[in-house]
Automatic annotation (TrEMBL):
GO terms for molecular function: zinc ion binding. It comes from the Eukaryota. It comes from Plicaturopsis crispa FD-325 SS-3. Pfam families: zf-MYND. InterPro entries: Znf_MYND. Residues 281-291 have a biased composition (Basic and acidic residues). This is MYND-type domain-containing protein. Residues 274-304 are annotated as: Disordered.
Length: 304
């Protein structure tokens, strides 16, 4: 029963806008502070799970960003270091690290438009959380510009807007995600109904994976976008890296680039093949093909 509640859309919905709005309507004393802390902690559990990006999409769709920004002054008035630290982490770390996913960015674009429309996110309204908000906002705008560049290069085809293959509607803003498996998106209930016979089996299998805490297959568009921005970053830095390697007498074939987009700011480290060591042997004497066993070759595969 607990698993069913935890992996349903209602779990995220009930822990975002309604709870935060209720807290915001009460004086900042112990009861609403504890309720808000419980709210954020449970949302963080979803974010830390195997399918964190899917939960981030659901939380943003449910109004997490606008509700949090509305509560900034309330949080300032509460003068509660733990609560402030949790909200600061939400903006500058937890949400920011998912801005590598195209599925998350699509929702973030709508959220930013709503924030502007409501007059939220200004230095005055954000108060002491202005710095954390700006970290998220600046990174989001940077990644959204890259998303637009990816789209212009054919990263998204017409049929991939609505998950019903026969649908040609071009309104990306109207898309809503399947609340059962958190996977495909549809432009209308009618398209979802027509697609259900084909989606039914996959929906049930994916939902079971959510219930079991297993990682669902990564969305192909998310993977395509991650590869796109990774290649851009490599191409931007590679000339200098190769010049430095030539001056140091380091063969270019021994260079490995370690890029981490899930931290803010992004880290980019140049390493040597020797840093990873040779492939290990498995217990039966054969080659160990696990990520750890593949060593530097696993890193090279990730950059292909």
């Amino acid at each position: 029963m607990i698993k069913s509640v935890y992996t349903s859309r209602s779990f995220i919905t009930s822990l975002t806008s309604p709870v935060l709005q209720w807290c915001n309507a009460h004086p900042p004393n112990a009861r609403p502070i504890n309720a808000m802390l419980l709210c954020y902690r449970n949302i963080f559990k979803g974010f830390h799970s195997a399918n964190g990006s899917a939960w981030a999409v659901q939380a943003l769709d449910s109004g997490l960003l606008t509700a949090t920004l509305r509560a900034c002054k309330w949080i300032d008035a509460a003068e509660h270091p733990e609560l402030f630290g949790v909200v600061e982490k939400l903006l500058s770390d937890m949400l920011s690290k998912y801005l590598i996913f195209r599925s998350v960015l699509r929702v973030v674009r709508r959220c930013l438009r709503q924030v502007t429309k409501l007059g939220l996110g200004t230095k005055e309204s954000a108060g002491a959380l202005w710095g954390a908000w700006r970290v998220f906002q600046v990174l989001a705008e940077e990644r959204l510009s890259l998303l637009d560049a990816w789209d212009r290069k054919g990263g998204r085809s017409e049929r991939q807007l609505c998950s019903r293959l026969q649908c040609t509607r071009q309104d990306d803003e109207a898309l809503k995600r399947c609340s059962g498996c958190l996977g495909p998106t549809y432009c209308s209930k009618e398209c979802q109904r027509l697609s259900w016979p084909l989606h039914k089996r996959g929906c049930r299998e994916s939902r079971q994976m959510l219930l079991d805490g297993l990682e669902m297959p990564r969305d192909k568009l998310d993977v395509s976008f991650i590869r796109f921005i990774t290649k851009l970053e490599i191409n931007r830095r590679l000339p200098k890296i190769l010049r430095d390697a030539l001056q140091a007498g380091v063969p270019r074939s021994t260079i490995v680039l370690d890029i981490n987009h899930t931290v803010v700011p992004m880290t980019f480290t140049v390493k040597r093949v020797s840093d990873f060591g040779p492939p290990r042997r498995s217990g039966d004497g054969g080659e160990d093909h696990s990520p750890a066993g593949r060593g530097w070759r696993g890193m090279a595969d990730a950059l292909d």
